[in-house]
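Exercise 7. Predict the joint structure of the components listed below.
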Amino acid sequence: MMDHQNLIPQLYRQEYSKMVSVLCSRFGIDQIDAAEDIVSETFLSAAETWGLKGVPDNPVAWLYKVARNNTLNGLKHDQVFRQHVVGELVHRSPPTVEPGLDLSPQNITDSQLQMLFAVCHPSIPVEAQVSLALRVLCGFSIDEIAQALLTTKANINKRLYRAKERLRSENIPLTMPDNTALNARLDAVLITLYLLFNEGYYSASPDNILRKDFCLEAMRLVYFLTECPDKTRASTARPDVYALLALMCFQASRFNARVSPRGDLVLYEQQDTSLWDMELVNRGNSFFVLACTQSNLSRYHLEAAIAWWHTHQDESTEKWENILRLYNQLLIGQYSPMAALNRAYAFSRVYGKKKAIREAEALDLTGSLFYHSLLGDLYTGLDDGKAGQHLEKALELSGTPAERALLSTRLGALNTIKK
Amino acid sequence: MKEFALIFRVSPNLAADVSPAEMQQRMTAWMNWMGGIAARDRLVNGGNRLGVKGSKWVGQDKVVSDGPYTEIKEFINGFIIVKGETVDEAVEMARECPILMGGAGKVEVRPLVTPDNNE
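Solution:
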């Protein structure tokens, strides 16, 4: 048996979202603060009690029992809670019965899915959605969220407050959208989960384990969408959901190779390919097969295909020709500055640096760190003076120690060549 | 920014006899050209390519005849919509169009008529 000091954080991550979701589905999403308090109190009791008396045989059942009791106590003692909720309870259930918390696996799953759709409601600003998802769907602490998103706790609290205000003021119901609305709402859910993954993947936070956890949680939630079959409504296991999952698997397969043991960022070309997680690539392949059951291609399909080519270790012409073709397709569908820069890089791998400089400079993204960093790379060997200027500019724009370290190394290498 | 249609015109006799490898090459050139415009956030609409086979011509007298190629020397085979500050910007994009390589066709640049631009 694991001792309680390790067990509690693990259970917290695992059960927090389920307990909050079930409580909210019972008492309404406007009671989300009360629900979070009850769950936090429950874990506090666990920490105290398990420390003194040892871990119970079935810790999860213990947590749910205490959460149920805390809810009951909340009903008895808390005036606000009493005014808002008890009145309704009296109508809904026989007076002698304790508040019926349905803790069946089916209800837990349903509640979590409903919560996912509520959190990703289009009326909540996307930035706040991501913070709220990390908090109530993934069980990360405010500290952890602030650390990974490189901002302050006060900032995260503000975002959470705003998101919850919006949940209340817009009267967002904790139910699944009906079939006519489901597709559009699922689009919004996917955008949030895609951002959530990217927050973990591209965050410059030095806490690698935490960043990886963000990615894994995003993947868990997308996977969750694929395995919630319900004959009574349209499926959330759409082909583009599988495509997003495949994309995440392909990207995450390089997670361990992207950062050196010292914590430095390692660029794609310099990565130790033996650190690429081929099992995750294989899983991504299986999901991608499931994504390709229909002929229409979403941007997640294109991005997954790009990520798939990146999992190939041999630097064939075919590889970069395909990556360029896919970036062309992606951009023709929808513009994004990051895709435009990545396209210019792929262009350099197919047609050489000289032609790619023309493409890159036409993007007119002066003032973007990645723009100057890319031009620094493209000019290296052709015009080292210009390469240096761009790298200096990028260094000025870089925000984190890891980025600065990488650029300084490249500048250093450039100066050595010049001499 | 103003919007412009880039309309592709080709001569009927130039469309035939292209090897698969050449076809592939042309496709790549087109994708790179359109991708380049999109990468600068200047593509408004990828438009459509227009087929030749099975197309009809309906005349003033409502007489239906085959194809565009029996009536005219060149026909429209597609269009895209781009945006730019001036027509010169749109012209610069058109100058890079792969249709101009090998003298196969021309690009017509036309401003879109909008409520605030109906010249």
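Discussion. The radius of gyration of chain A is 25 Å.
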